[in-house]
Amino acid sequence: MAAKTPEDLYATFLRQSLFVITTRPARAPGMQEVLPAHLDYQVSLERAGHLFGAGPIFEDGGTTPTAGMIIVRAEDEEAARKLADADPFHEAGLRHYTIHRWLLNEGGMTFTVRYSDQSAVVR
After folding, report:
1. Model confidence over 4-17: pLDDT tens digits?
2. Which of 12, 38, 55, 90 is buried most deeply by CB count within 10 Å?
3. Is residue 2, in this structure, part of any structural domain at all?
4. What is the pLDDT of residue 27?
């Protein structure tokens, strides 16, 4: 039996394009006042189906975030940029961002839904 080539393996991968928006700084004067609007915006992206995941980034084992990461579903980079530009932190000039296209190939999620107590766990 011949060994699989990378092309053989790639053919079965998900190969879904997502966009990773990395924001900095994570903390700055004025951010606490805008934080509720930012969080509301994130939830609106989630409910609209644009938000794959988001949260703070910590470096070197620290406990204070140094950046943020937002992963969105968008048709292309221009659409992802429009989503990023509309973030209240970016509109207010409190954060700047970079966008990278990310090709999701491998990985997985596990969902547990318990009917008895109406709980859910994602791993």
Report:
1. 898 888 888 998 99
2. 38
3. no
4. 77
SS3 115: coil
DSSP secondary structure letters along 31-93: HHHHHHHHHHHHHHHHHTT-EEEEEEE--TT-SS--EEEEEE--SSHHHHHHHHHTSHHHHTT
CA 52, CA 74: separation in Å to the nearest integer?
A: 10
Residue 8: inside a domain, yes or no?
Answer: no
Give whole-number Cα distances, 97 to 14, 62, 90, in Å.
27, 21, 8
How far are the Cα atoms of 3, 31, 50, 120 from residue 93, in angstroms, in the given order?
Answer: 52, 10, 22, 37
What confidence tens digit (pLDDT) does each residue in 74-117 have?
Answer: 999 999 999 999 999 999 999 999 999 999 999 998 989 999 89
Size of the chain in residues: 123
For residue 40, give the nearest of 104, 4, 114, 91 by alpha carbon.
91
Domain range for 37 = 15-122
Q: How many independent structural domains does the chain possess?
A: 1
